[in-house]
Amino acid sequence: MTPKDYETLSKPYVPTRPVFKNCIRAFLSGGLICVLGQGIQEAFMAIFDMNAREAASPTVAVLILLSVILTCFGVYDKIAQWCGAGTAVPVTGFANSMCSAALEHRSEGLVLGVGANMFKLAGSVIVFGVVAAFVVGVVYAVMGWGGAH
């Protein structure tokens, strides 16, 4: 049987994907995470008399902490299963991925288990971020958009 024959044979049994419903769920859940982040930032600004720029870093730290706590209790994965990409895109999704890898490999030890496996994912993200920042920096320098020199 060729791969094309198999595809033809199996096509009636493949469940359809509710793309529109998944997009709505991702939009709403990603938006709710952003609304939560905005609320946390507004609280930092009101309680600690910070401006928006000063409140940005602690806001991200709180969102990461909430994501890690929910991951440790197994709640974030259930939320992400229903929400789909809406929970994967914000910083909370990256924190969930890192924490999940750490939890999964903790029995192998702190260095070779948690450290090595947790940073397999982070390494690719960090490399992509550095390369992208370099390319954008070169484009800005070549085009003269870098501000005052």
Structural account:
This protein is an all-alpha fold and 149 residues long. It is 80% helix and 0% strand. The protein contains seven helices and no strands. The N and C termini lie far apart (66 Å). The model has no long low-confidence stretch (mean pLDDT 89).
Tertiary shape: extended
Poorly predicted regions: none
Proportion of strand residues:
under 5%
Largest sheet: none
Helical amount: over 70%
Run of helices and strands? HHHHHHH
Number of strands: 0
Gyration radius, in Å: 21 Å
Report the average pLDDT across residues.
89
Q: How far do the termini sit from each other?
A: 66 Å
Derived structural class: mainly alpha
Given the structure, what is the number of helices? 7
Describe the protein's topology:
Elements: H1 3-10, H2 19-47, H3 52-72, H4 75-83, H5 85-88, H6 91-104, H7 110-143
Summarize the structure.
This protein is mostly helical. It contains seven helices and no strands.
Please give a handful of descriptors for the protein shown.
mainly alpha; 7 helices; 80% helix
